Amino acid sequence: MNIKVCVGSSCHLKGSYDVIEVFKEILKKYDVEDLVDLQASFCLGFCSQGVTVKADDLDEPTVKQIGKDELFIHNVNKDNAEELFAKEIYPLLNLK
Ligand code: FES
Questions:
Q1: 32 is in which domain, residue-wise?
Q2: For residue 87, what is the DSSP state?
Q3: Which of 4, 46, 53, 54 to mutate to test the pocket of ligand 1 (most atoms within 8 A of CB)?
Q4: N or C: which end of the chain has fewer CB within 10 A?
């Protein structure tokens, strides 16, 4: 899976650097650093919706299960990043 944090100018101003740093810690904490490629991304096209994070490169069963091959999360900040990761992204890894 890729997790792409938008670092376009709008998201950058809203704290995407902090979000990336927090995501690094979260991936360590959940021991999924080998399963997730954390990347910075150019503008993802949702500039008015706070820092946007996209999860893609999902495995086939996950794509079938959720009916799409990518997930966008908006209004991410350093304070809600872990909660959003745990609720929205971690389940997509299909770990037991
Ligand atoms: S700058 Fe992040 S979505 Fe446009």
A1: 2-93
A2: I
A3: 46
A4: C
